[in-house]
Specification:
With 225 residues, this protein is α+β, with helices and mostly antiparallel strands. The chain has five helices and 17 strands.
């Protein structure tokens, strides 16, 4: 026992230090520290967009970011850990091309950006325009013989839209979801929604649209009485 005790306690702290160093070396060369790569697809975030401008490009590209780092970090990486950012503080109406490089990529420490695709982003900008457009209801259905639509009342008659000037100026009206008025003989009221087909245009303060369909006798039916 004395021999064992002397063997264990002799240079005890030196042995502890050696054990710690050995453990550190093992961790440094462990498989989890070996480099690995992964490609992550993320949306491009636009910073400091001037309030009077709208992005008028119909498609906004995403960025594919290929990063390299320790395997343990790559294994635990989430798409939300990486961000591609473009600063639009000084843009004006028109077209502009931006370089998308590693400098625009925010990522965790110890990760290195290997590749950014696309390397450039081309965008179009237009001034923001707000205006009113007429709401045109879309009525469908099969009606009783001798009956036809006499008039259609809409409330509200107009809605306000906002978006890139060129797109808003080209929009002369909004439409409603299809209204099936089949079987209506005198009049019927429907509640629906109005929308614009252009995805770059938004409806300001959207509200339900009330549509009243008023029927009347067809001329042939009226002359038969």
């Amino acid at each position: 026992m004395d021999l064992v005790r002397r063997w264990v306690l002799h240079n005890f702290w030196l042995k502890i230090l050696s054990l710690l160093i050995a453990t550190g070396l093992w961790m440094a060369i462990s498989p989890n520290q070996e480099p690995a790569e992964v490609a992550v697809r993320v949306p491009i975030e636009f910073l400091h967009v001037p309030w009077q401008l709208e992005i008028s490009s119909t498609t906004i590209p995403e960025a594919q970011i290929r990063v390299r780092g320790p395997e343990r970090l790559i294994h635990d990486l989430r798409a939300t850990d990486i961000h591609a950012e473009l600063d639009l503080a000084d843009v004006q109406a028109g077209e502009r091309t931006f370089d998308l490089t590693a400098q625009q990529i925010l990522r965790p420490r110890d990760l290195h950006v290997v590749q950014v695709v696309p390397g450039q982003v081309h965008l179009s900008f237009d001034t923001r325009l707000t205006r009113e457009v007429e709401v045109r209801p879309r009525i469908t259905g099969n009606f009783v013989a001798g009956e036809q639509i006499g008039k259609v009342l809409v409330d509200p008659q107009k809605i306000t839209i906002v978006g890139p000037r060129g797109h808003v100026e080209a929009m002369d009206s909004a439409t409603t979801d299809p209204i099936d008025a089949s079987g209506t003989t005198t009049q019927a009221t429907f509640v629906t929604n109005a929308y614009v087909a252009d995805p770059l245009i938004q409806v300001v303060r959207p509200t339900p649209v009330r549509v009243i369909v008023v029927m009347e006798k067809t001329p042939a039916a009226g002359s038969g009485h």
